[in-house]
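Work Package 4 report. The design task specified in the project plan requires that, given a folded chain encoded as structure tokens, an amino acid be chosen for each position. We show below one input record used in the internal validation round.
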């Protein structure tokens, strides 16, 4: 009986390890071909290949243009409440990224502009400052420890996958901008304030009052900031 129990425990552990390995491989798995340029719909379903949520373009029809994206030389519009703009180049905009496990963003900051606290559920991020000075940081999972640093032109900072992070242009008079690379073709983004106070339908008022330990008037005022 002891041997049987020991075997069962070992088998259970092995099963958990295998399950964990399968789970990890679900995130932008390594491609099994050189490339898979994404298309909305194949011309002939008989020969269609469907990879990671996208159909692959026939390799014989792929051109060099499929691996080029243009437009990041243009500054983004920062005339908004936060004074920032993120131009994300993911697989939806750049089909050549499909199955490659990467994407790119240009982040523009007006004077004292903020890329508000947010996280990417499917990607780590590495940021390089091109112009200006940014305060960048992330917060760990419980216990919530902040890692933040003042970054200057040419500095690089990394944000681990799934952790809340932010960037702030500390210059109140001049702009700043940076490029970021993310470890997923479709990293996703959850902006904390928008998700909590601007969800559709709204999160229960009782939940928000209890969570933030404030009264209804404060929650109402915050939700008004995120109305369409």
């Amino acid at each position: 009986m002891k041997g049987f129990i020991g075997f069962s425990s070992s088998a259970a552990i092995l099963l958990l390890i295998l399950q964990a390995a399968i789970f990890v491989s679900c995130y932008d798995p390594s491609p099994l071909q050189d490339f898979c340029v994404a298309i909305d719909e194949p011309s002939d379903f008989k020969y269609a290949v469907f990879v990671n949520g996208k159909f692959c373009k026939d390799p014989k029809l792929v051109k060099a243009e499929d691996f080029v994206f243009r437009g990041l030389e243009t500054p983004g519009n920062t005339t908004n409440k936060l004074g920032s703009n993120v131009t994300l180049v993911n697989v939806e905009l750049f089909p050549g990224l499909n199955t490659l496990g990467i994407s790119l963003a240009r982040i523009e900051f007006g004077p004292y502009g903020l890329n508000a606290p947010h996280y990417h559920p499917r990607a780590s991020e590495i940021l390089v400052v091109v112009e200006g000075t940014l305060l960048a940081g992330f917060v760990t999972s419980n216990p919530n420890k902040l890692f933040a640093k003042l970054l200057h032109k040419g500095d690089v900072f990394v944000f681990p996958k799934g952790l809340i992070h932010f960037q702030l242009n500390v210059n109140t008079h001049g702009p700043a901008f940076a490029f970021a690379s993310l470890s997923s073709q479709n990293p996703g983004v959850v902006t904390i304030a928008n998700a909590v106070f601007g969800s559709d339908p709204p999160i229960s008022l009782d939940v928000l009052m209890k969570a933030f330990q404030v009264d209804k008037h404060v929650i109402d005022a915050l939700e008004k900031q995120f109305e369409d």
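The domain at 7-188 is CATH 2.60.120.10 (Jelly Rolls). Validation will be extended to a larger panel in the next phase.
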